[in-house]
Inverse folding.
């Protein structure tokens, strides 16, 4: 059969004039290399009439214009910002869901039936759950966002819900946001391209050492609090500082999953600067730090926790750069983490005698390099290498296995957006991710490897 | 054999000719050179939704936009430093992209790198054959601004009456003159005269916020709109007097002109208005 079909092509080629063959080749290459104009994602595109590619390198990563739009409180800075200018039929709502097929594999899993470790694999069709996102302006310079989100078989929760007062005192350097919101990380986990179980989060943003009882889920989680932020007119220079409840974004004054017990506050700060390099684009560099507290035990009443106690400190600090080389951009991040000795060893602060020998606060370093290459606004490749390595384990016993909990991972993938209209968008998403965790297998203390392969359709409307 | 060997060259020549409209067009903005080939990619990313793939202002979202997106094929531009009827300079187009237009859907694109905006200028110029047949006009000379005096303001008020500015803009500059409701642009779309009283700052000015920018509007006109050029009618000093008077119509704006007017009693002394004018009283 291959010979036959090959022969058919050759026969066809012989039958056609050579000039026509050349013309057809040129025509097909033109069609392949010419992208259709991309159009808008629903919520804001309908409002402003801009194509989605105006704000996104490849949806959902923001470009310089999109970053400026976001920093302005979802405003373009003209008189179309206030909802009074919109047709009454306009609703700023976007739905997003990702039907998919995926494969998950993990090595060195302890199996009860055999009493040994083996690789386990699951595969099948699945759903991502559903986001119902509404955002925009309530009035000129009063912005909002509400994002109820539901996982498959889950109940709704608020991924974010906030109101923001923009351009206070008529300056872009003063904006105040209150509610549950994404931390102002320029390299945003909420707007990156990867979706799989292994690749769908930056490890650095969520990492905790083995045995650590810190209730903080990471700077990748949306948090509850108040944020003061500001930026230059073109949003090249930016800052933010936020005071946050020590609840990892959980409502109900929750602390470590226990309702009604939180009573401390965390601080997050971020500052970054952008500068133009002619012919390449706007390069950005920044610094960030998260300084928080987490309880180590609870006061109880009738056995029910009523107040978090023994709060101990932790910190995450780092630096990042976002480098542009025309259609190629590279994100780089370095982060250092540190938890208090009681958090790191899982010991209540009122029981220091229980600290194991050689107990110290665990520390670690991590970083990633992530690249995106936008062939055109409708086709983008992505690849990432990320690591987190412990620099100090929490006690003498753990220090015997210095690689315990270390993570090395990589992700590759691409997204093709065949449809991007102002009323809806569809992306074909293909991704492979792999992460190796040091010495974590239960029986042999070997490294474990997790793998995800995902093929899906990410669509919103 | 001869004809066969010529085929690749013919095809290459055809491709080169087809590519010329895009790759041949350049722009010069300061020390930046804009390239149309790069601009095309940026246009498809940022501009196509409103201005359309052909640059004729018929993008996907154009039907829902008011005022309508600029038609680059016609190459008629409001904000220029060049005389009426002429093409704008590359710098004029660059400034318009950077500044945006507050009372339209056109945002300010100052977040884009300078090079991107220069490339966009180069590509925009590929849509109209005018850019091949004509050169941009020479930027008009803007003489130094004379001091703001009550005499200057009063003379400006006199010119405002004499040149019948009030017929469109209204006696109080609120855009409610007797002709205001009938005005259309060159595409037969309704257009409203500028309302000087509408903002406490200058953000609503289409072509720039300085007194020099206002001066240029008188002397170049806003092509494609009923706002004519007065370059042949008034002298430069008259134009400056008019600028000074118009600033006093921005009653909520802090300005040198309003300070001078206030210290002179708060009222201009100009001929009485035509009774048919929409005074906005």
């Amino acid at each position: 059969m291959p010979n036959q079909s090959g022969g058919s092509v050759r026969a066809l080629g012989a039958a056609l004039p050579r000039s026509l063959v050349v013309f057809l080749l040129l025509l097909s290459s033109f069609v392949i290399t010419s992208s259709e104009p991309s159009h808008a994602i629903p919520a804001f595109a309908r409002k402003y009439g801009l194509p989605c590619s105006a704000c996104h390198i490849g949806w959902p990563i923001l470009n310089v214009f999109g970053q400026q739009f976001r920093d302005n409180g979802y405003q373009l800075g003209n008189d179309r910002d206030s909802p009074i200018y919109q047709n009454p039929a306009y609703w700023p709502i976007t739905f997003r869901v990702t039907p998919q097929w995926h494969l998950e594999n993990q090595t060195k899993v302890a199996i009860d039936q055999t009493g040994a470790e083996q690789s386990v694999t699951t595969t099948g069709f699945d759903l991502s759950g559903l986001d119902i996102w509404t955002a925009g302006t309530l009035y000129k310079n009063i912005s909002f966002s509400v994002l109820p989100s539901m996982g498959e078989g889950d109940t709704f929760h608020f991924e974010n819900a906030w109101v923001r007062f923009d351009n206070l005192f008529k300056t872009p350097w003063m904006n105040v946001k209150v509610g549950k919101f994404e931390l102002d990380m320029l390299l945003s986990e909420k707007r990156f391209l990867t979706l799989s179980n292994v690749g769908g989060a930056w490890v650095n943003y969520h990492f905790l050492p083995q045995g650590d009882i810190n209730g903080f889920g990471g700077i990748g989680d949306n948090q509850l609090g108040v944020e003061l932020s500001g930026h230059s007119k073109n949003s090249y220079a930016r800052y933010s500082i936020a005071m946050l409840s020590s609840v990892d974004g959980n409502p109900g004054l929750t602390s470590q999953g226990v309702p009604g017990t939180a009573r401390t506050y965390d601080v997050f700060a971020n500052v970054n600067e952008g500068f133009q390099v002619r012919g390449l684009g706007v390069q950005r560099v920044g610094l960030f730090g998260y300084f928080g507290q987490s309880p180590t035990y609870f006061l109880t009443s009738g056995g029910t926790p009523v107040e978090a106690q023994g709060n101990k400190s932790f910190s995450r600090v780092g630096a990042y750069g976002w480098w542009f080389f025309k259609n190629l951009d590279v994100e780089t991040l370095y982060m250092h983490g540190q938890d208090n000795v009681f958090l790191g060893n899982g010991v209540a602060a009122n029981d220091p005698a229980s600290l194991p020998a050689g107990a110290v606060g665990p520390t670690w370093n991590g970083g990633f390099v992530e690249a995106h290459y936008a062939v055109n606004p409708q086709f983008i490749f992505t690849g990432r290498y990320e690591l987190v390595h412990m620099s100090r384990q929490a006690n003498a016993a753990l220090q015997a296995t210095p690689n315990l909990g270390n993570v090395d991972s990589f992700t590759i993938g691409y997204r093709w957006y065949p449809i991007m209209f102002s009323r809806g968008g569809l992306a074909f998403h293909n991704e492979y991710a792999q992460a190796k965790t040091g010495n974590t297998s239960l029986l042999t203390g070997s490294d474990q490897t997790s793998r995800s392969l995902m093929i899906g359709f990410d669509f919103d409307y | 054999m001869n004809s066969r060997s010529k085929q690749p060259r013919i095809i290459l020549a055809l491709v080169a000719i087809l590519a010329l409209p895009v790759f041949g067009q350049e722009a010069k903005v300061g020390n930046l050179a804009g390239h149309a080939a790069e601009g095309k990619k940026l246009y498809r990313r940022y501009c196509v939704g409103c201005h359309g793939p052909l640059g004729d202002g018929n993008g996907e979202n154009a039907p829902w936009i008011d005022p309508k997106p600029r038609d680059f094929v016609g190459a008629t531009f409001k904000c220029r430093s060049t005389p009426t009827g002429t093409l704008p300079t590359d710098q004029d187009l660059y400034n318009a992209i950077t500044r945006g237009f507050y009372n339209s859907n056109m945002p300010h694109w100052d977040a884009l790198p300078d090079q991107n905006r220069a490339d966009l200028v180069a590509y925009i110029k590929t849509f109209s054959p005018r850019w091949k047949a004509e050169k941009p006009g020479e930027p008009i000379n803007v003489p130094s601004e004379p001091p703001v005096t009550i005499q200057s303001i009063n003379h400006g008020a006199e010119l405002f009456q004499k040149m019948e500015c009030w017929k469109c803009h209204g006696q109080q500059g609120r855009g409610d003159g007797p002709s205001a409701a009938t005005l259309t642009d060159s595409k037969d779309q309704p257009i409203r005269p500028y309302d000087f009283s509408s903002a406490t700052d200058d953000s609503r000015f289409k072509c720039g916020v300085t007194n020099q920018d206002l001066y240029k509007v008188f002397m170049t006109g806003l092509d494609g709109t009923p706002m004519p050029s007065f370059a042949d009618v008034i002298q430069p000093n008259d134009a400056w007097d008019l600028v000074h008077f118009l600033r006093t119509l921005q009653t909520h704006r802090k300005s040198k002109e309003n300070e001078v007017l206030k210290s002179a009693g708060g009222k201009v002394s100009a001929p009485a208005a035509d009774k048919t004018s929409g005074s906005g009283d």
Chain A has a mean pLDDT of 88. Chain A has two domains: 1-34, 35-460. Chain A is about 10% helix and 50% strand. Chain A touches chain B through 40 residues (CB under 8 Å).
